[in-house]
Amino acid sequence: MKMRRALPADAAALAALECRQPRAAGWGEKGFATELAQPCAYIWCAQEQGEILGFLALRCAAGCAEILNVAVAPHRTRQGIGRALLRQAFAALRAQAAEQVSLEVAQDNVPAQALYARAGLKPLGRRKDFYGPGCDGLVMGMNL
To answer: For the chain, how many structural domains are there in total?
Structure first.
């Protein structure tokens, strides 16, 4: 499996992958194209035999990074792709001298919370109804 930065030409493939993962942010092709044009945005892809199997999108400014969107192809979940994407992103952030990273995850998305906790992120707080009525967002973060 190869890790690489996403390119503008990847926007359609990223959007297609995101469509297959209902917990992803729902950016669509235009959203990915817009994000890839931002100077503070980074999207890492996990790719194998030309297929994008997962991605992790983040923004980093002033030493603080926020993970915005993560998805792994449904047929490849629980195979270490999410963990590899987090490792790649954290290494790149450390190389840029970023100091902190954070994200929000739905309170009922236990598998994602476990992945993030194994990567070293800790619960920092909650955003009430962030994912809709009755579904708080759990804010997680860590120092790099």
So the answer is: 1
